[in-house]
Amino acid sequence: MPKKTPTKPSSSAAIKKNPDWSYWENLATVSLREALQLSLGLDPHSHVPASEEDMSLREQYWNRLLISKNHAIDADWVVGKVVREDGDISPEYTDVYLKKFAEWIVNDTTLDPFPEQFLKLIPSQTKANSEHLQEPLQTEQPHLHLNRDKRSQYYFATQPVSVLNDFMRV
């Protein structure tokens, strides 16, 4: 069975750092390796994490890989996992639900940073952002409701706290 890992491009110019998000955001499942690379904003088709020259980026990838493999045992974002003879999970052949994985790694880990396009994969983030934008502005001040009496509501809403304290001392 051939490996899915891309070969190292012949020139450093061939390595694309930015993924084509219009392609990736339309996929339901990807390999764990691809999901991890996307979480760093790297193009899985042309980028090889082991050959990354930027040591901090390489370290971020390996940290995310180790944490993901540790949580993949019972995770709801795993579609199917392939375990090697040594008992380790194969990132190339373990498939994950991309959006569920994105939601997990962003919300349930302390790993940072994430590219903006990767954050947009999270359904709850997108929904929360759209609801926040559509939320009407609150112009009316909340006030105390006492026995549904409109006069009491108005009185308590317009009086300073000291009057309320006097009223409460019975």
Question: What descriptors fit this protein?
Answer:
mainly alpha, globular, three-stranded antiparallel beta sheet, 170 residues, 8 helices, 3 strands
Describe the structure in your own words:
The protein is mainly α and 170 residues long. It has two domains: 12-134, no CATH class; 139-170, no CATH class. It is built from eight helices and three strands. A three-stranded antiparallel β-sheet has the order 1-3-2. The radius of gyration is 26 Å and the shape is globular. It starts with 20 loop residues before the first helix and ends with a helix.
Task: Briefly summarize what is shown.
The chain is mainly alpha-helical and 170 residues long. The chain contains eight helices and three strands, in the order αβααββααααα.
Mean pLDDT over the full residue set: 75
Overall geometry comes to: globular
- End-to-end distance, in Å? 83 Å
Oligomeric organization of the protein chains: single chain
Over all CA atoms, what is the radius of gyration?
A: 26 Å
- Supply the number of structural domains: 2
Helix content: 40-55%
Reading the helices and strands in chain order gives HEHHEEHHHHH
Strand content: 5-15%
How many distinct beta strands? 3
Largest sheet, in brief, is: 3 strands, antiparallel
Low-confidence stretches: 5-15, 126-148
Q: What structural class is derived from the secondary structure elements?
A: mainly alpha
The order of strands across the largest sheet is 1-3-2
In DSSP terms, counting alpha (H) and pi (I) runs of 4 or more, how many helices?
A: 8
